[in-house]
Amino acid sequence: MMETREFNAASFNKFLSEKKLMASQCKKCHAMYLPPRPLCTHCYSSEMEWVGLKGQGTLTAYTVIAVGPTFMVEEGYDRKNHYCSGIVQLEEGPKISARITGVDSKKPETIKIGTPLEVDFLEKGEGENKKTFLAFRKRS
Ligand SMILES: [Zn+2]
Fold first, then answer.
1. What is the radius of gyration, based on Cα positions, of the chain?
2. What is each CA distance from 43 to 26, 28, 35, in whole angstroms?
3. Separation of alpha carbons 134 and 113, rounded Å
4. How far is the CA of 42 from the centre of ligand 1 (A)?
5. pTM higher than 0.85
6. How far, in Å, is the centroid of ligand 1 from the Cα of 136?
């Protein structure tokens, strides 16, 4: 069945809550966008379709963050408990920034560019407030 949801962040997040990593792909030139875009920046076509990604990728850049935004501080991350944020190059081509899990943020020197990663869906909150965040964890 064809997905007909709008190509925006709300749809992308809805897919995340269904544990799906979805990109938009231009029907004309096949450029892929993650997060999804409604308009192709290569050929200016607005004919997009949803494509599901396998969620396999590699780490191409990262930072270990000691002083994060409020919602991360609320999760218990601070100057003593760092977390890792990175850019993931997906097998299908696009890159996306996400939380990186399964790495030792206390020892950033052990985190390597090129580390194989797979998609992880982090669920926070309960009931109506439940939100799903995109993360990638180290593939073992
Ligand atoms: Zn295009």
1. 16
2. 9, 8, 18
3. 19
4. 5
5. yes
6. 28
